[in-house]
Amino acid sequence: MVAEGLVTRFHGGFCYVMVNGVVKACLPRGRLAAGGLLVGDRVKVRVARECVVEEVLPRRTELLRPPVANVELAVLVFSLRDPEPNFKLLDRLLVASRAAAIEAVICFNKLDLMEGAFPEELNVYHAVGYQVLLTSALTGEGVAGLRAVLTGKISVFAGPSGSGKSSLLNAIEPSLHLKTGEISRKTRRGRHTTRLVELLPLPGGGFVADTPGFAQLDLPDIPAARLASSFPEIAAAGVECRFNDCLHLREPDCAVQRAVAEGVVAPFRYRHYVNFLQEIRDRERRSWS
Ligand code: GDP
Ligand code: ZN
């Protein structure tokens, strides 16, 4: 019998595949044994006394760090306090998600530590069109909303260590028994991470990687002209620029510079856009010389 399944981990030469809700130890066949598979791959398995992975189905997305196929959602986790959110890092992760064609939601955690007004930046992300979740892994507030977002999808958590990724996963599914910092620590194992990424099945359906996404914080290798597509409000304003190839720096009749001056585009978002553009151009220059 041949059944379809999803690769959840590799261990001891076996590839573990979830088939109809049951994890089976399988042997990958031929070239698939030699690194041709990633966790997250949808595969065809010949189910017998010895299960064999016979075929891998086309990937929808392919993340390299950590190596996971078919990730649909990145949950970008930042704490509201201890430490305070780094919005430049958040924007970097939004660019990385977009380049990988992975939908992003933003989760601000440690809601219980929040006193007084929320940072103005939170409204900006919401207004720009991102889904913004507020959670406390400690009190459980907002956790049901996060669980709902993850259901049925393959997700990765990303964000600085200490923001509460491991704690949130435990709050979502206590049987995972992750130690605090466990998710963050995984990346630091460097090149061995490949063998170790595991997809944890969620009870309501769906999977989440036990290693944070976008471990490499270099900007993705995209052309300068494509950067604005990761800033929806800048892309929208840019439609009105005089030049089609306007990069919104110092060009005349630039609608984005006007939108920043008028407060329609938040200055901090524009600043990050300009910083990232510079980074991309520096890299392009280096690769030519
Ligand atoms: P990770 O490195 O992103 O996996 O973060 P951890 O889950 O290890 O959390 C880092 C620290 O923050 C730990 O000491 C947690 O107990 C604490 N923490 C996590 N979530 C919350 C929260 O919602 N509220 C509070 N007050 N502390 C939290
Ligand atoms: Zn412009």
TrEMBL record:
Keyword Nuclease: no
Compartments it resides in: Cytoplasm
Keyword Cytoplasm (UniProt): yes
EC code: 3.6.1.-
Segments passing through the bilayer: none
Single GO term (MF): metal ion binding
One Gene Ontology term, aspect cellular component: cytoplasm
UniProt xrefs under SUPFAM superfamilies: P-loop containing nucleoside triphosphate hydrolases
Pfam families linked: RsgA_GTPase
Start and end residues of each EngC GTPase domain: 69-215
Enzyme class: hydrolase
Stretches assigned to the CP-type G domain: 60-217
Cofactor: binding comment: Binds 1 zinc ion per subunit.
Keywords, sorted A to Z: Cytoplasm, GTP-binding, Hydrolase, Metal-binding, Nucleotide-binding, Ribosome biogenesis, RNA-binding, rRNA-binding, Zinc
Chief location bin: cytoplasm
Function: One of several proteins that assist in the late maturation steps of the functional core of the 30S ribosomal subunit. Helps release RbfA from mature subunits. May play a role in the assembly of ribosomal proteins into the subunit. Circularly permuted GTPase that catalyzes slow GTP hydrolysis, GTPase activity is stimulated by the 30S ribosomal subunit.
Record-stated family: Belongs to the TRAFAC class YlqF/YawG GTPase family. RsgA subfamily.
Subunit structure: Monomer. Associates with 30S ribosomal subunit, binds 16S rRNA.
Official protein name in the record: Small ribosomal subunit biogenesis GTPase RsgA
Gene: rsgA
